[in-house]
Each structure stands twice: as structure tokens, then as C-alpha cells.
Amino acid sequence: MSTVHQTEALTTMIQSLEERRVNELSELKAQLHLTGESMRPVNLIKSAANELTGNKNVKSYLLQAGIGLAVGFLTKKAVEDSKVNRNGKLIGNMAEMGLNNLTANQYAMVKLAAPIVFGLIVNFIKTRKEKRAHRKSIATQ
């Protein structure tokens, strides 16, 4: 009688182990699929971008660099007049480099002064365009 009881116990143990094996195999396949998806180049780039933008220091640095480039570019465009002379280009390049350096080193000051400077640059560009339009209208008359 004990052999029948032991046989039934072994059969139940074998069935439970087979069920466990099937479950673990399906979990392993699902994990393999997730790992394969996460290793795709597109997903790697996405996760790297999320990590970069999730860090406050990196966000601050990117914002600082963007403001520096924008201010430098706008100043260069406002100063240089490529049709008139080469000195304008030289001064524009120097202004761009100087402002890029200033924004990289003195971000707090630039953050406070940026709206004022931006307004001045926009006004300067508008008046320069108006003067050009006025000169063209005088020349055509």
C-alpha cells in the first residue's frame, strides 16, 4: 500500500513540476521578448534621450547652451551686414563668440538680461529692415 501512495505522490510532484516548468518557460520567453525589444537601436536611443532629459542638471545645461547659441546667432545677424562690408561679418563673428562664452560662464546674469537684450536685438532688426525698405522706396522714385 505504501508503494501506491508513493507512486501517487510522485505523479503529483511530477505534474506540479511540469506545470512549473511550462510557466517558467513562458515567463522566460516573455522576458526574452522584452529584452530583445529594449535592445533595438530605436529603443536604446529613446531610453538614452529620456535619461538625458530626465536629469535636471542636463536640462539646465542644454537650456544654457541653447540660449547661448540663440543669443550669439541673433547678435551676429543683427551686427553683420554681408552686403555692405567685411567688417560687419568680423564684428558679427566676434560678438557671437563673445556672447557664447558669456552665456556659458555667466548663465544667471544672462538669464536675467536675456529678455532685455532680445528685445533690443529685435527692435534693431526691425529698424534696419525699415531703413532698407525706405532706401529702396527712395531709390525707385
What does this structure look like?
By secondary structure, this protein is mainly α. It has two domains: 38 residues; 82 residues, no CATH class. It is 91% helix and 0% strand. It is built from five helices and no strands. Helix 3 packs antiparallel against helix 4 and helix 4 runs antiparallel to helix 5. It is rod-shaped, with a radius of gyration of 34 Å. The relative contact order is 0.06.
Termini distance?
122 Å
Task: Report the biggest beta sheet as strand number plus sense, adding barrel if it closes.
Answer: none
Strand content: under 5%
Low-confidence stretches: none
Shape: rod-shaped
Question: Which structural category fits the helices and strands?
Answer: mainly alpha
How many domain modules?
2
Helix content: over 70%
Order of helices and strands: HHHHH
Q: What is the alpha-carbon Rg in Å?
A: 34 Å
Per DSSP E runs of 2 or more residues, the count of β-strands stands at 0
Please count the helical segments: 5
Oligomer: single chain
> What is the typical, i.e. mean, pLDDT?
76
